[in-house]
Design brief:
Number of helices: 13
Organism: Chelatococcus caeni
Largest sheet: none
Transmembrane segments: 72-93, 105-125, 154-176, 205-227, 260-284
CATH architecture: Orthogonal Bundle
Keywords: Cell membrane, Membrane, Transmembrane, Transmembrane helix, Transport
Structural class: mainly alpha
Helix content: over 70%
Pfam families: BPD_transp_1 (PF00528)
Subcellular location: Cell membrane
Distance between the termini: 36 Å
CATH class: Mainly Alpha
Length: 291
């Protein structure tokens, strides 16, 4: 009886969270999957079941493939750069340095800034001619560049903003993990004559793998959900050079009001994220050492 009572008590405690999770996550996801099988209702014209018609349209949509290619490039650069930079910053602020608290605050400050504010700050940096970046490069004789107006530089300019903002956030997790590593391990490695690099490669890095898995999953999700910076800085231009998948979904759903096709694109995005998360857990889990 006591076990049954404890089970009922635990279920009641979990019930509010389960209801909220289902209401705001699972039910909308299921409705999105179903909505992708219909046309968008307009005026007096009701929605019509068309099966995989929206998916066939997606395969012939050049803007979708452009946004997908942009997103793959964006993810391929932002994920490793932000994770590696976060680890380097965490190692730096974990060391006993003068002014360590100020350095930690400087690294973490971009994370607490609103994304719209960050985008506007970098708009000033990237302004052709009198922006900070052109002013500094002009001292070395570099010609003015329209960083956000050129197809060759626009996406990479957005990537730089994302790395600058995300690295400080991931640094906090690495710093917390570094501070849980026992000092006895460092002392034992020093007695054995192991170098700092050897200790990092053989001890620190394996112990950081659980944190790395968590950071990588969040970095992948973040790489496919960017929309704020794009809206403020480029609006997907020039010529869709910075249009990412979520921004394209936003345009289709809220600018062109094609909810059915937006649901189709969202379904593809959810499938991509599910596959990437499964791959990360299946392959990285084998190399993780839990203490």
């Amino acid at each position: 009886m006591s076990r049954l009572r404890a089970s009922i008590h635990a279920s009641l405690l979990l019930l509010p969270a389960v209801v909220l999770l289902a209401a705001f996550t699972h039910v909308p996801a299921v409705r999105t999957f179903i909505g992708a099988l219909y046309t968008t209702p307009r005026g007096n014209r009701p929605e019509v079941f068309i099966g995989l018609g929206n998916y066939r349209h997606l395969l012939d949509d050049p803007v979708f493939w452009q946004a997908m290619a942009n997103n793959v490039w964006y993810a391929a650069l932002t994920i490793p750069l932000s994770v590696i930079l976060a680890l380097v910053m965490a190692l730096a602020v974990d060391a006993r340095l003068p002014g360590r608290a100020a350095l930690r605050m400087a690294y973490f400050t971009p994370t607490v800034l609103p994304m719209i504010a960050v985008a506007n700050i970098w708009l000033f940096f990237y302004t052709p001619g009198y922006g900070l970046l052109d002013q500094v490069l002009g001292l070395f004789g570099v010609a003015q560049t329209n960083w956000l107006g050129s197809r060759d530089t626009a996406l990479n300019a957005v990537i730089a903003v994302a790395v600058w903002k995300e690295a400080g956030f991931f640094m906090i997790f690495y710093l917390a993990a570094l501070q849980t590593i026992p000092h006895d391990l460092r002392e034992a490695a020093a007695i054995e004559g192991a170098s700092r690099f050897t200790f990092f490669r053989r001890v620190t890095l394996p112990l950081l793998m659980p944190t790395t898995l968590f950071v990588l999953v969040n970095a992948v999700i973040g790489a496919f959900r960017l929309v704020d910076h794009i809206v403020v800085m480029t609006r997907g231009g020039p010529d869709n050079a910075t249009a990412l998948l979520l921004y394209y979904i936003y345009e289709i759903g809220f600018r062109f009001w094609d909810s059915a096709y937006a649901a189709t694109l969202t379904t593809v995005l959810l499938a991509i994220l599910a596959v990437l998360a499964a791959v990360q857990f299946l392959f990285l889990e084998r190399r993780i050492h839990y203490r």
